[in-house]
Design goal:
Layout: H1 2-16, E1 33-40, E2 43-45, E3 48-51, E4 57-63, E5 72-75, E6 80-83, E7 89-94, E8 100-106, E9 112-117
Parallel strand pairs: 1-4, 3-9
Antiparallel strand pairs: 1-2, 4-7, 5-6, 5-8, 8-9
């Protein structure tokens, strides 16, 4: 009985936080502008997105085909690597701090896109 109570006590916080995901930071989180990006057989559409330094932006990737190598998203400079399940949205929120380009690509580095920061 005691081990059951301990197990439940440890499991409840995980359930409340959505499983094994990290808990959200306390306080409001700025999401900023959302941009939908389709991942098709030929790459990203749009392949370039422009934003301002210091402003949060959420890129919402959705793979729409089994063709091509778009099964994985990589943003090398941000050390981001995410699986892109077919027909599911995967959101990535960034707040770039300086002007330049943040390149995003597929796992095989064949598809190419960029977040252009002004």
């Amino acid at each position: 009985m005691r081990s059951l109570i301990l197990t439940l006590a440890l499991a409840l916080p995980l359930v409340a936080c959505g499983g094994e995901e990290e808990a959200a930071p306390s306080g409001p989180v700025a999401e900023g502008r959302r941009v939908a990006i389709e991942v098709g057989a030929d790459g990203y559409e749009p392949s370039r997105v422009t934003t301002q330094a210091g402003e949060p932006i959420t890129l919402v990737f959705q793979r729409i085909t089994e063709a091509g190598c778009g099964h994985e998203l990589v943003i090398p400079s941000e050390d981001i690597r995410r699986e892109l399940p077919l027909n599911e949205e995967v959101a990535v929120t960034l707040t770039p701090s300086e002007a330049g380009e943040l390149r995003f690509t597929c796992g095989m580095d064949m598809f190419d896109g960029a977040l252009v920061v002004e």
